[in-house]
Write a structure and sequence with these properties.
180 residues; mainly alpha; disordered C terminus
Length: 180
């Protein structure tokens, strides 16, 4: 028995169902064989033989070509991606959906490299530090953030205040008491 010179219609349908799926989505080899017209009793064996290059090299080659075609069709390129985001932005603006338009434009900026997401992950546990290390760390934090901690904003004006580092607790007025 020699190798056939061309695919039969059933072999072509099998390959197309296997690569592209059916109306209900992706198909297994058995389901593709039944959908292509093979006997349900032999469908599992036919599906296995049709995807084996020793038995059906033309079918395997055709399946490979169909998969490449599908990849080219759905290929994502930088230019295509940015153009699609621009199209989505324009459609959102026409509908008055400004939030969606802003998101599309921000995504275009990220794709173009205009935005950088930066995350800083610090490790270490406070329970593993000695009391001296904790005090040094708290002093460092106070020194680093002193400009923010010392600024007091009153009606648009900024005023410097001195932080109290004394260990004595201060009494706080309770705002829940209506008579105070």
């Amino acid at each position: 028995m020699g190798v056939p010179k061309r695919l039969t219609e059933m072999q072509q349908r099998f390959a197309e169902f296997l690569v592209f799926g059916g109306p209900d989505g992706p198909m297994s080899k058995r389901e593709a064989a039944v959908a292509a017209g093979y006997s349900p009793d032999r469908a599992m064996r036919e599906g296995s033989e049709l995807t084996n290059p020793r038995y059906s090299p033309l079918v395997v080659k055709y399946i490979g070509e169909l998969k490449e075609e599908r990849l080219r069709k759905h290929e994502v390129t930088y230019e295509g991606h940015v153009a699609e985001l621009a199209r989505l932005r324009e459609a959102a603006l026409k509908k008055g959906s400004f939030s969606s338009a802003v998101n599309a434009e921000a995504s275009r900026g990220k794709a173009a490299g205009l935005y950088i997401d930066r995350k800083i992950i610090k490790t270490g546990k406070l329970d593993e530090m000695t009391e001296e290390q904790l005090e040094a760390k708290m002093k460092q934090i106070l020194d680093d953030y002193a400009p923010l901690l010392n600024a007091k904003t009153v009606e648009g004006e900024s005023e410097e205040i001195k932080p109290s580092l004394s260990s004595e607790p201060k009494e706080l007025e309770s705002s829940s008491d209506p008579q105070k």
